[in-house]
Amino acid sequence: DRYYLLGAMNELGPRAPELHQQSASGLSLRPQDRAVFIGPQPLTAAYAAAVLEAGADPDQFSTVENPLEAKSIIAGLRGAFFLKGSRSYRLELLFPQHSATIRPRLS
Asked: What CA–CA distance (Å, rounded) separates 90 from 55?
């Protein structure tokens, strides 16, 4: 199973919702995949719109404002996790047991 934790990209300015929708438009969730979109509602709604348009079921994703809210959603899940978002979200902290092996990549 694959799990996508996508935090908002905070530095995009007025085109942020459009750019969030574009960035998630290529995310094709398989039936067993799940996603959590993290950040302000207008940006997570843009992510959600993109995956719905790509054919995802609404039960396949959640939206939360704060990374800590994602913790209960991902608790107990097993599989591959993909984390991407602005550094301010510090998504790697959702996996403290792996903090020594997660290397944030700045791009």
From this structure: 29
Q: Please write the tens of the pLDDT for every residue from 27-76.
A: 989 999 999 999 999 999 999 999 999 999 999 999 999 999 999 899 88
Partners of residue 82 on adjacent β-strands: 4
Tell me the two tokens of residue 40: 């302000």
Question: In what order do the strands lie in the sheet containing 80-84?
Answer: 61-64, 34-38, 2-7, 80-84
Say if residues 88 and 10 touch (Cβ distance below 8 Å): yes
Extract the tokens encoding 21: 């929708």
Contacts with 38 (C-beta within 8 Å, 6 or more apart), sequence order:
5, 6, 7, 8, 44, 63, 64, 65, 66, 67, 69, 70, 85, 89, 91
Average pLDDT over every residue of 5-16: 90
Give CA–CA dist 47/40, Å, rounded.
11
- Say if residues 95 and 78 touch (Cβ distance below 8 Å): no
